[in-house]
Design a protein that fits this description.
Elements lengths: L1 E5 L6 H12 L2 E4 H10 L3 H12 L5 H11 L9 E4 L5 H14 L5 E6 L2 H14 L10 H24 L3 E5 L4 H12 L3
Parallel strand pairs: 1-3, 1-4, 2-3, 4-5
Helix pairs in contact: 1-8, 2-3, 4-5
Bound molecules: adenosine monophosphate (AMP).
Length: about 190
Amino acid sequence: MRLIFLGPPGAGKGTQAQRIESFLNIKQLSTGDMLRAAVAAKTPVGLVAQDIMARGDLVPDEVVVGIIADRIDEADCANGFILDGFPRNVAQAEALNVMLDEKGLTLDGVIELKVNSEILIGRILKRAEESAGGPREDDTQEALTHRLRVYEEQTAPVSAYYAGKGVLKEVDGMQEIDQVTEAIKATLGVN
Ligand code: AMP
């Protein structure tokens, strides 16, 4: 199964993608995780991404589209994947369409986790406090406020894009974690 998880920072995409990854034996592909690894390893991509990520802006489309195009060709994606944090704007969604067409692949669903924007900042600041490896550089109040604005301006239209194609499914992300997982499975018809 090939899926996209949409939702603002703090909606629980990563947590839910990990659960569905093991349930369906498909690969979670988080562009944020891949970019953080590139920054830590000081690769050329990491050097481009570092400051952009720290302030909460989007890394250039060609960088993330290239990362995803290479990654989904890997053997561990043969059974399917969950895109977590990609596409982040309509141009990326269109590039993904072209890429999947070229590879002869189709999407099985786009799940949007719906959460009340007022609870997001609290959730993310809590995640920052509890993070074993220390807080992320972009989990400060300032970067977070900016990330939420970038989401509203650039990523929210991606939901409308997939809704227009008739493939968007909404799940209430304000429920308990287990309930959200069950709702996603039910939506996908895999429970
Ligand atoms: P995330 O872990 O998904 O919250 O992503 C952390 C940061 O990585 C974002 O604020 C962006 O700077 C960058 N990033 C992750 N995914 C993308 C993407 N698809 N396009 C552009 N930038 C991205």
